[in-house]
C-alpha cells in the first residue's frame, strides 16, 4: 500500500551507482521514502534529501528545498567541505556496526601480518624452506589507536582481545572503557598515545585539526621500525614525510587503505615501494540493508521534524 505522505530524495554520486547497490534494499524497507536518480526527478523543488558518495561541486545546485545530505559511508568530510551545502542543510551519516567489525578485522590482519612475519613465512614456503621464526608475547607490543568513534572502538576491542598493549587518543574518556586499555585525551593525546608505539592505527575522522596529523613529528614519536596502519582518510597522511620515515628506518612499513587521490594513480610512487601494503579502500564497507534502514529512519525523522539520530555535529566534524 502506497504511503500518502512520501518524502522524495535523490542519489548523488559520479563514481558509484547508488541505486544499483542500495535500491533494492531501500525499496524493500519502505514505500514512503522514495529515491531517484537526478534524471528521474520531474520537479527538483520536491526533493528534500540526498544520499551521497563524493558528490561533485554542482550536485546540490538543482534542489532548492534540500534540507538533508546523508553520506552512505562513515566519513562526512566531503559533505562538510562541500561548497554547495549551506549551514541550513543537515548532514548525516551511516553508522554500521558490521562495518566497524570489518574495519577491526582489517586492522588486526595488518598488525598480525607484520607481528608474526607472515609475508616472510609465505616467501619461505614458496621456496620449500622450513624456518620457524621467533615471536614475542602480544603484551610486549605497543599499539596506538587514534580515534575512538564507532570504528575506533571496534579496533581497540580487537587489539585488546589479541593481548596487545593498547593506548588510545580520543576526544573524551569513554563511558564504557575497554578493560586494560589506556585512554588519553587533550591536545597532546595523539603524541602521548604514539610515544614508543610499535604499531600506529589511524581511525580518526577528517577535520581541520586532524588533517596532516600523520607526519614527521608524529612518526618521530614511534618506536624505531614501527608500522603504520592508515584506515582513516587520505588527507591525514603527509606522503613525503611517510617516504622519509621509511627511508630513515623510523617506519619499517605501512598498510595504506586510503589516499588523497582515489583511485591511486597508476604512476604514483607508492605502488613501487616494497615497504607499503596498498589496498583499494576496502578495509570495510556497509551492508545494503543497514544503509537502507538508516536512510529510511533518517528521512522519516526529517519529514516528521524529529531529531536525526544519525546527524553530524558540523562544529566537531563527526
TrEMBL record:
Looking up Pfam families in the UniProt record yields: 2-Hacid_dh_C
One GO term in the molecular function aspect is: NAD binding
Which InterPro entries has this protein been placed in?
D-isomer_DH_NAD-bd (IPR006140), NAD(P)-bd_dom_sf (IPR036291)
Indicate the segments forming the D-isomer specific 2-hydroxyacid dehydrogenase NAD-binding domain, all copies: 111-283
| Keywords, sorted A to Z | NAD, Oxidoreductase, Pyruvate
Entry protein name: Glyoxylate/hydroxypyruvate reductase A
Amino acid at each position: 500500500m502506497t504511503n500518502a505522505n512520501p518524502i522524495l530524495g535523490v542519489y548523488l554520486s559520479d563514481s558509484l551507482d547508488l541505486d544499483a547497490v542500495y535500491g533494492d534494499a531501500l525499496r524493500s524497507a519502505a514505500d514512503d521514502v522514495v529515491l531517484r536518480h537526478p534524471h528521474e526527478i520531474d520537479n527538483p523543488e520536491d526533493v528534500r534529501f540526498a544520499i551521497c558518495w563524493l558528490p561533485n561541486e554542482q550536485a546540490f545546485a538543482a534542489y532548492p528545498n534540500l534540507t538533508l545530505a546523508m553520506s552512505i559511508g562513515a566519513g562526512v568530510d566531503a559533505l562538510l567541505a562541500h561548497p554547495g551545502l549551506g549551514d541550513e542543510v543537515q548532514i548525516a551519516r551511516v553508522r554500521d556496526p558490521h562495518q566497524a567489525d570489518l574495519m577491526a578485522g582489517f586492522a588486526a590482519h595488518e598488525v598480525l601480518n607484520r607481528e608474526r612475519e607472515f609475508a616472510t613465512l609465505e616467501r619461505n614456503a614458496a621456496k620449500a624452506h622450513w624456518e620457524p621464526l621467533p615471536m614475542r608475547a602480544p603484551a610486549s607490543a605497543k599499539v596506538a589507536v587514534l580515534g575512538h568513534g564507532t570504528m575506533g572502538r571496534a579496533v581497540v576491542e580487537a587489539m585488546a582481545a589479541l593481548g596487545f598493549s593498547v593506548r588510545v587518543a580520543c576526544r573524551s574518556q569513554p563511558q564504557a572503557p575497554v578493560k586494560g586499555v589506556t585512554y588519553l585525551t587533550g591536545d597532546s593525546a595523539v603524541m602521548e598515545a604514539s610515544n614508543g608505539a610499535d604499531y600506529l592505527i589511524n581511525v580518526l575522522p577528517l577535520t581541520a585539526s586532524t588533517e596532516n596529523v600523520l607526519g614527521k613529528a608524529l612518526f618521530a614519536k614511534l618506536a624505531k621500525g614501527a608500522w603504520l596502519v592508515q584506515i582513516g582518510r587520505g588527507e591525514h597522511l603527509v606522503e613525503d614525510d611517510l617516504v622519509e620515515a621509511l627511508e630513515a628506518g623510523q617506519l619499517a612499513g605501512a598498510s595504506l587503505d586510503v589516499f588523497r587521490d582515489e583511485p591511486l594513480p597508476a604512476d604514483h610512487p607508492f605502488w613501487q615501494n616494497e615497504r607499503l601494503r596498498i589496498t583499494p579502500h576496502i578495509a570495510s564497507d556497509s551492508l545494503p540493508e543497514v544503509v537502507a534502514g538508516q536512510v529510511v529512519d533518517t528521512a522519516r525523522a526529517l519529514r516528521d521534524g524529529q531529531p536525526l539520530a544519525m546527524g553530524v555535529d558540523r562544529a566537531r566534524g563527526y
